[in-house]
Amino acid sequence: MRGRRGDRMTINIQEHMAINVCPGPIRPIRQISDYFPRRAPGPEGGHGGFEEAPARLAPLALGPPAALRGATTPEDGAEVDSYDSDDATALGMLEFDLLYDQASCTLHCSILRAKGLKPMDFNGLADPYVKLHLLPGACKANKLKTKTQRNTLNPVWNEDLTYSGITGDDISHKVLRISVCDEDKLSHNEFIGEIRVPLRRLKPSQKKHFNICLERQVPVRAGLGTKGRGLWGGRVSGTFSLPQLASPSSMSAALRGISCYLKELEQVEQGPGLLEERGRILLSLSYSSPRRGLLVGIIRCAHLAAMDVNGYSDPYVKTYLRPDVDKKSKHKTCVKKKTLNPEFNEEFFYEMELSVLATKTLEVTVWDYDIGKSNDFIGGVSLGPGARGEAWKHWTDCLQQPDTALERWHTLTSELPAAATGALPSA
To answer: Which 3 state secondary structure label does DSSP give 419?
Structure first.
């Protein structure tokens, strides 16, 4: 179409929209299934092998370049850690030292620093602190905590936290849980990540250094005590973990039920005669030949169970030498207010011949003092010819080594001695 000179050429809208719209033949739109293998019917009509995508369509380069993936791949035969991923490293790394002193039965935990923590506040920073727990065990009784570092993702603590009364048996089966949390003054504190270290990895009197990525949650073995069956009776394999919660108070009733169910299954798996641990007590036994009697020293307690609503207890210790026909063997320490790690440093003396003492049993019980109501039983331990483990060994060594003060840590259990049951209201 040619117009006169000076005239403005007009093009209708249909011709205008058709210009350079279709530069070539129309190609089919790619489907997402074109980039993945297609399942072809098998010889029996079921699902057989895979057929490759059409050769005319190039597959999408979804993965990163080989240089960015690193040298270790599953094809190389190396073991792949499911927590060593970008999702785990995004929580940050924690650096700390652990040292077990077998002579003093103490576990020293040095919390050094953290790097690259996950931002938890609106300003893109966090107010991190570290909590320690010994598992299994009472949560509040063995909790240790560092100070809070404000507005930082790379906090430096350099704090030493110490657990007392850690025996060789604890080292063999207990796990140290190290949690990093964000402190919020106006709401509940938020969980960032955790690390769980089996204490059996430690060697006595040798400091071990750790620099580990934080994990969201350690997996729970499916079917604990249920021979491979899940919570609802179905066959399961591998591991599963409960959903991450912003804070313990935000846990729903269903998750509480699941956690309690798993705890009961774990106790059943460990054995039907399992007793709940209520703390530790450090006792000193010595038979005095000049005075012809047993000297019992109540030195201290550690990690006692909390019996009051404030998260503490008001503990005191009672001792009996059974059988007690005359009911004159009762001794009691003073009450220590609002503490789970009391120090008593008190001694009691039982005048008795060594031959008669060999037939007796020393019962040590720890109680929580309450005003206006019955005192609460925290835990107890019995030392004598009928005892087992460390309690029996301590009693036997005391009889075989007179005039020698022997100090040992003992585990307090929830089993109330039969002789003390009747004295519960007047404890």
So the answer is: helix
Rounded to whole angstroms, the Cα distance separating 187 from 247 reads: 10
Q: What residues contact 112, with CB distance under 8 A and at least 6 apart?
A: 95, 96, 97, 156, 157, 158
The Cα–Cα gap between 196 and 214 comes to 9
- 164 bridge partner residues: 106
Integer angstrom CA distances of residue 104 from 66, 108, 111, 192: 52, 11, 21, 33
b/e code 90-113 from CB counts within 10 Å (16+ = b): ebbbbbbebbbeeeebebbbbbbe
SS3 of residue 380 by DSSP:
strand
d(CA 55, CA 34): 10
pTM over 0.70: no
Q: What is the pLDDT of residues 54-88, one digit of tens each?
A: 444 444 444 444 433 443 333 333 333 334 444 54
Residue 157 in tokens: 């603590």
**Which residues 6+ apart lie within 8 Å of 268 measured at CB?**
225
Alpha-carbon distance of 169 to 163, in angstroms, equals 14
179: part of which helix (H) or strand (E)? strand 175-182
Beta strand pairing call for 239-240 and 144-145: unpaired
Q: 3-class SS at 73?
A: coil
